[in-house]
Amino acid sequence: MASLGLIGLGKMGFNMRERLRAAGHEVVGYDRNAEIADVGSLADLVAALPGPRIVWVMVPAGEATRQTVADLGEVLAEGDLVIDGGNSRYTDDKINGDLLATKGIGYLDVGVSGGVWGKENGYALMVGGAAADVERAMPIFDALRPEGEREESFSHAGDVGAGHYAKMIHNGIEYGLMQAFAEGFELLEAANVVTDVPAVIKGWQRGTVVRSWLLDLLVLALEEDPELDDLEGWVEDSGEGRWTLEEAIDNAVPAPVLSAALFARFASRRPNSSSMRAVAALRNQFGGHAVKKVAE
Q1: b/e for 228-266, b at 16 or more Cβ within 10 A?
Q2: Concatenated DSSP letters for 105-169?
Q3: pLDDT tens per residue, range 203-245
Q4: For a FRET experiment, which of 2, 7, 57, 75 has its CA 20 to 30 Å from that of 20?
């Protein structure tokens, strides 16, 4: 069994620690919240791990991740391996990898999908980096991914940066799928032909070409709130959709569905709409993302 340091015990990091421990791996977790951390500092985390070490970073993308990687470069040793499993922009990965390489420390970027359901169901993993580093971390990856054929939930996408690039495109596709369900929900509500909208949507779960996990999550949301009246139609975007659209522009690839879905989120921050309430409910269901209640 492997030993792993895990930095960042938020919604996903905390559940990943529990899933790894359930599989028999030793996990030492560090978080700014001392109540859920196993150690009090990065130095303590490094000291608690046998070498050569593997440290997985699950902190917010951007400066927080860049600073954490830089800090690890000061306390880890040659031969250690850092994995960024957050939602970093793929262009940050080469910078992080090059920085650690000067110290003889390996680097992998991993796009992780599974949200708050990953502890129970497992996580799909998209990995970028050297094949030797990927193979070294494979016991960790195998414990995190769902049971079954590895190829169905794990991919070595390419060199450093490829994992986060793949996850970025995955999230862009997700934007479009959620928007399609949301617009269908609004039309069913608006037409005054269907008298039981939740029942119709639930009836799509088996035997139809639109059956999917997202549809299942929409059914769960409607069981909790049949008209989604408890939510405002306000939907944030975490960055990946914008980045995907920028890549589409840079590569001259038409992406009308993605662009429409992203712009619909911008529109959601204006007057309330039932389609945006559906998107908000879906994001809360699969990822525990923040929603705004009507009272707020």
Answers
A1: beebbbbbebeebbbbbbebbeeeeeebeebbebbebbe
A2: -EEEEEEEE-GGGHHHH--EEEEES-HHHHHHTHHHHHHHSPSS-GGGTEEEEESTTHHHHHHHH
A3: 999 999 999 999 999 999 999 999 998 888 888 888 899 999 9
A4: 75
Clarify whether residues 193 and 79 are in a common domain: no
pTM (whole model) above 0.70: yes
Q: Residue 177: which domain range?
A: 167-287
Residues 114 and 30 occupy one common structural domain: yes
**125: domain CATH number?**
3.40.50.720
Strands 106-113 and 26-30: unpaired
CA distance 32 to 36: 9
- Residues with catalytic function: 167, 174
Q: How confident is the model at residue 296 (pLDDT cuts 50, 70, 90)?
A: low
Cα–Cα distance between 171 and 115 in angstroms, integer? Answer: 12
Residue 58 near residue 16 (C-beta atoms within 8 A): yes
Cα-Cα-Cα-Cα dihedral of 158, 18, 6, 290, to 10°? 80
For residue 282, give the amino acid letter: L
Same structural domain for residues 113 and 186?
Answer: no
